[in-house]
Amino acid sequence: MKQIGVLALQGAFAEHIQVVEQLGHRALELRQRRDLNNSLDGIIIPGGESTVIGKLLKELDMLDYLRHIIRDGLPVMGTCAGMILLAKEISYDSSRYLSLMDIRVRRNAYGRQLGSFSVDSIFRGIGKITMTFIRAPYIEEVNEGAGVEILATVNDKIVAARQKNMLATAFHPELNCLDVHKYFLNI
Ligand code: GLN
């Protein structure tokens, strides 16, 4: 049984906790800096509002330490806002948060009208899954030279990628299936 920390400052953390527990593992809410001292096998950064989660991470003095343990190799999965927090580049936006993954993301990339939608598409290593996007970002560019692997695309836009211990999805896997979490638990 693995112990997975789920960042629980804002956003869709409850759904991730449910999936982790459904897969037979232990989920731990990460709400303050000392929660990061627990022995963890991985961390999930949920969807929500990246500006709000980022601001709270700074205010709670969690940002630098979180960056440090991920850089040290702790597996992390960032979904939607979580992906934005992991990215080194955010288009048309000078904010940077964890700044660990060699990807450039674009926030609210599908515009207002296409704010939320679901599609079935292939996730490399898993197969076809349903992907739900909620005011989602997508990845405009990855640095393959830095070891970023593209795992899924939808309409030619990159919506999932992995770089070593870091997994990022633009969609919300916790809403539709267990497979992406299983993939993450194998990292
Ligand atoms: N639009 C949000 C942001 O920019 C992300 C949306 C989500 O996580 N569902 O942070």
The backbone outline, from C-alpha atoms, is globular
- Beginning-to-end CA distance, first to last residue: 14 Å
Main β-sheet, in a few words?
7 strands, mixed
Assign the CATH topology. Rossmann fold
Q: Order of helices and strands, N to C?
A: EHEEHHEHEEEEEEEEH
- Gyration radius (Cα, Å) is 15 Å
CATH architecture field: 3-Layer(aba) Sandwich
Q: Supply the CATH class.
A: Alpha Beta
* Strands side by side in the biggest sheet: 2-1-3-4-12-11-10
Word description of this protein:
The chain has one domain (3-185): Class I glutamine amidotransferase (GATase) domain (Rossmann fold). The strands form three sheets. A seven-stranded mixed β-sheet has the order 2-1-3-4-12-11-10. It has 187 residues and is an alpha/beta fold. It is globular, with a radius of gyration of 15 Å. The chain is built from five helices and twelve strands. It has helices at 13-22, 50-59, 63-71, 81-86, 179-185; strands at residues 3-7, 26-30, 42-45, 76-79, 87-90, 101-106, 116-123, 127-134, 138-142, 148-154, 157-163, 166-169. The protein binds glutamine. Glutamine binds at residues 47-50, 80-81, 84, 107-108, 134-136.
Summed up, what is this model?
With about 190 residues, this protein is of the alpha/beta class. It has helices spanning about 15-20, 50-60, 65-70, 80-85, 180-185; strands at about 5, 25-30, 40-45, 75-80, 85-90, 100-105, 115-125, 125-135, 140, 150-155, 155-165, 165-170.
